[in-house]
Design brief:
Oligomer: single chain
Family: Belongs to the HypE family.
CATH topology of the largest domain: Phosphoribosyl-aminoimidazole Synthetase, Chain A, domain 2
Strand order of the largest sheet: 9-11-8-12-10-13-14
Mean pLDDT: 88
Strand content: 15-25%
Protein name: Hydrogenase expression/formation protein HypE
CATH superfamily of the largest domain: PurM-like C-terminal domain
Shape: globular
Structural class: alpha+beta
Organism: Lolliginicoccus lacisalsi
Number of helices: 8
Pfam families: AIRS, AIRS_C
Number of domains: 2
Low-confidence stretches: 1-24
InterPro entries: HypE, PurM-like_C_dom, PurM-like_C_sf, PurM-like_N, PurM-like_N_sf
Largest sheet: 7 strands, mixed
Helix content: 25-40%
């Protein structure tokens, strides 16, 4: 309960001491949920940033913007990475920063060409850690086939940062004839997941909290532009691609369905959730559909082309576990539902914030 008014003045609420399963939607201050990629992130953009930007705001403010430059379609993206811990099983904030931006560009069907990288370093951070992160970043860029062409470095006072924050931006060229965007989703589209879901979020959580699940869960961080190129090369009619990072598969599907004004029907028995992730989520009370991924994609493909795309994905290292998880429907537009193992259905709603803060 709020404090009573004193001397006719309303008392100031101390929200930091409150315990609540989700951040208050009407909080006057930024809370962690605003960065979770869910409903609160969308509200922050829609009700604060876009009105503040005014006429300067252009496009749909998606993860990757498509702009035309001299008759050429270019996919452009920027992202910031603040993961904690900075080094985790399977990677670090360095390769995460490259792979995250590369994947955002690739989800438009583009092949990333160049990246910028900006470091914000906290005073007192060991140079050995920064070297490890920078080495991972360079190696990831080489693997993705991109060049690091410009950048910046800033240092903040000790206690005013958290080790290493990285921003990466980049662009790529969209091939002629490729048109991949949420608005192209169609009823009957087959929904494909490129592999096991929930791995990155659980890897970060287990490392951060010192939890052991009988095996070391390693992040799935990877650049997916090669997989996307393989899929496009089949000539299949690929309507939508999305990397389900913050907010997981649930957030990605809800955003697509809202944009396309269509629904999605999933089969829970078909969801590619590895046993160690399922066990960890069961123990911690998490839903794997809401847990972040950093090396997986979701594809909406014309049903007649689904088998062709799947076969091509299975040949690629990042798509060998690809599987069909559902279809696009006209019922319940803007909503995702899942058929349970018991034959019932449940709504897979857009998360308000995120289950696991600071995963990317």
């Amino acid at each position: 309960m709020p404090e009573p008014a004193r001397n006719g003045q309303a008392a100031t609420l101390d929200l930091e001491g409150w315990a609540c399963p989700l951040p208050l939607r009407d909080s006057p201050n930024i809370v962690m949920g605003h960065g979770g990629g869910g409903a609160m992130s969308g509200e922050l953009i829609e009700h604060l940033f876009l009105p503040a930007f005014g006429a300067a705001a252009a496009g749909e403010m998606t993860d990757s913007a498509v702009v035309t430059v001299g008759g050429t379609r270019v996919a452009f993206s920027t992202d910031s990475f603040v993961v904690k811990p900075m080094i985790f099983p399977g990677g670090s904030v360095g390769d995460l920063a490259v792979n995250g931006t590369v994947n955002d560009i690739a989800m438009s069907g583009a092949q990333p060409l160049v990246l910028s990288t900006a470091f914000i370093l906290e005073e007192g951070t060991p140079l050995s850690i920064i070297h490890r992160i920078a080495t991972d970043l360079g190696a990831a860029a080489t693997t993705a086939g991109t060049k690091l062409v410009t950048g910046d470095t800033k240092v903040v006072d000790s206690g005013h940062g958290d080790g290493v924050y990285i921003n990466t931006s980049g662009f790529g060229i969209i091939p002629e004839g490729v048109d991949i965007r949420p608005q192209r989703a169609r009823p009957g589209d087959t929904i494909i997941a490129s592999g096991h879901i929930g791995v990155h979020g659980v890897a970060i959580l287990s490392c951060r909290e010192g939890l052991e699940f009988g095996t070391t869960i390693r992040s799935d961080t990877a650049a997916l532009n090669g997989l996307v190129a393989t899929m496009i090369a089949t000539g299949a009619d690929i309507h939508v691609l999305r990397d389900p990072t913050r907010g997981g598969v649930a957030a990605a599907l809800n955003e697509i369905c809202t944009t396309a004004h269509l629904g999605a029907a999933l089969d829970e028995r078909s969801l590619p959730i590895p046993p160690e992730v399922r066990d960890a989520c069961g123990l911690l009370g998490l839903d794997p559909l809401y847990v972040a991924n950093e090396g997986k994609l979701i594809a909406f493909v014309a049903p007649d082309d689904a088998d062709t795309v799947l076969a091509a994905m299975h040949v690629h290292p990042h798509g060998r576990d690809a599987t069909i998880i559902g279809e696009v429907v006209t019922e319940h537009p803007g909503m995702v539902v899942a058929k349970t193992a018991l034959g019932g259905t449940r709504v897979v709603d857009l998360p308000a914030g995120e289950q696991l803060p600071r995963i990317c």
